Amino acid sequence: MKKKVLVTGGTGYIGSHTAVELIKEGFEVIIIDDLSNSQAEVLNGIEKISGVRPEFVQFNLCEEDKLTAFFEKHRDIDSIIHFAASKAVGESVEKPLLYYKNNVLSLVLLLEAMKKYNISNIVFSSSCTVYGQPDKLPVTEATPFKPAESPYGNTKQIGEEILRDTCKVNKDIQAISLRYFNPVGAHDSALIGELPNGVPANLVPFITQTAAGIRQQLMVFGNDYSTPDGSAMRDYIHVVDLAVAHVIALKRLIDKKQKNNYEFFNLGTGKGLTVLQLIQVFEKVNNLKLNYKVVDRRAGDVEKIYADTTLANKELGWETKLGVEEMMRSAWKWQQQLATKKV
Ligand code: WQD
């Protein structure tokens, strides 16, 4: 009997890539998404890649009556992978209440539903933003949280604390938080990828849209950081490597392999790359020149962060397989494929 997994936010960037990997591993996937930052058309891409079109229900998890009706109807859900959240750092500064409601209330309602409907496993989409600007690099899971640099990062810190406190008194709930560094790239088929609504806040979609002529010029936010070339440093991880880690974490919960019922892991490559270094890789692998200029720093940015991935490597038996060249090649291939799409 196939195990049924609810993927909230499953038409989003990481959610859709994870749905593909879950189907590949024999899971039955059902998606809840409010389509506030994705399109239902993503289901076509998932179906073309995997041969299976996941069941899809459109609503926001904060709509409590719809959430209850959903779980009344679907009594056969074994586990949840919870992606659904707002995730634009800059927007969260402008609209904090939207972020606290959408990211925190939805998690509370989901956990209440898990208790009511006896669902024991949840994988939570967390973020390296929980660390703030670390004093020491690379960051391990023991690195203490600094005050979050944005309401977005704070919602992820609060989310992890909610899970920790819930698991402390509910031994029948098993949870894993996955702290993503910077997810980039796209599925090799170029049938799914990152599709931000409006002007991209993140670096790589802005790079590919500039290369495609959709954006005039990329602004590099600062080159006066203490890094090899002055631009900020991040740990870029291929979205497919990230998706695979979610399936491994889910299996750890299902197979009851956890050391305790709340765990958390860094998901990065362990390598730091600056903005200018990433641009150079993009230009080299795609044989093009990118139009960019250096401007002032962006408020809220941390200077540099990259992961110590020892714990995930050891406990999850997970290693990243795709390097930065493949990240940049697949990101560009996806952007070019988008251009051929009927608008
Ligand atoms: C990366 C670097 C910018 C745009 C992201 C997500 C967050 C979390 C962590 C998952 C920074 C620079 C960017 C541009 C630039 N992920 N940049 N010009 O801020 O690290 O956060 O990863 O939870 O949700 O937002 O990612 O891609 O915005 O920025 O120079 O036009 O690129 O200053 O140094 P960030 P980003």
From TrEMBL:
Q: Which CDD domains match?
A: UDP_G4E_1_SDR_e
- InterPro entries tied to this protein: NAD(P)-bd_dom, NAD(P)-bd_dom_sf, UDP_G4E
Q: In which pathway does it act?
A: Carbohydrate metabolism; galactose metabolism
The record's annotation in Pfam families points to: GDP_Man_Dehyd
UniProt domain NAD(P)-binding: residue ranges: 6-329
Among Gene3D superfamilies, the record links this protein to: NAD(P)-binding Rossmann-like Domain (3.40.50.720), UDP-galactose 4-epimerase, domain 1 (3.90.25.10)
Q: Which UniProt keywords apply?
A: Carbohydrate metabolism, Isomerase, NAD
Question: What molecular function does GO assign, one term?
Answer: UDP-glucose 4-epimerase activity
Q: Which domain of life is it from?
A: Bacteria
Q: Which family does it belong to?
A: Belongs to the NAD(P)-dependent epimerase/dehydratase family.
What do we know about how this protein assembles, alone or with others? Answer: Homodimer.
The record's section on NCBIfam families has: galE
Q: What is this protein called?
A: UDP-glucose 4-epimerase
Protein's organism: Ohtaekwangia kribbensis
